[in-house]
Amino acid sequence: MFAVISTGGKQYCVSEGQRVRVERLSAEVGDELSFDAMLIGGQEDSDTRIGTSGKPVGQVRATVCEHGRAKKIEVIKFKRRKDYRRTLGHRQQFTTVEIAGIDLPKAPAKKAPAKKAPAKQAADKKAPAKKTAAKKAPAKKAAADKAGEES
């Protein structure tokens, strides 16, 4: 069973028992969470269900394992011969969660397609008449020509 969840502005493909590092969540270690923003879900060999925006497919249950900070990213700005050097750093905070379960509601039973009425013969139908667009006459330049002839 797999699912694609959305949290922290990112999307993660997860399966049961997997540990995933996500953006920092406001939950204590050991808390149970549920990700409702499940975009895709299903099993590898069977039907895969795809949700639409605002209508998730199912729910993913997870447990918070730890909080932490990633390795430092250094940003260096430098312009040669100008005596300009700037160094910045950033450590992104994260939360590690373990996926406890993926809940997919059962798919509604598909209805059998309705029987179609027999098609009528083509001779009975009349083709609609084509409408022709009225052609516009070119703009007259008579007023401009008369002004040129009089002078």
Structural summary, described in words:
The protein is mainly beta. Helices cover 6% and strands 43% of the residues. A 4-stranded antiparallel beta sheet has the order 2-1-5-6, with no helix packed on it. The protein has a 4-stranded antiparallel beta sheet with strand order 3-10-7-4, with no helix packed on it. Strands 8-9 form a two-stranded antiparallel sheet. The mean pLDDT is 82.
Which oligomeric state applies?
A: single chain
Secondary structure tally: strands: 10
- Count of runs of 4 or more consecutive helical residues: 1
- Describe the global form: flat
* Spatial gap, N to C terminus: 90 Å
- SSE series: EEEEEEEEEEH
Strand order of the largest sheet: 2-1-5-6
What number is the mean pLDDT? 82
Structural class of the secondary structure composition?
A: mainly beta
Helix residue percentage: under 10%
Major sheet characteristics: 4 strands, antiparallel
User: Which regions contain 5 or more consecutive residues with pLDDT less than 50?
Assistant: none
User: For the CA atoms, what is the radius of gyration?
Assistant: 33 Å
Portion in strands: 35-45%
Features:
mainly beta, 6% helix
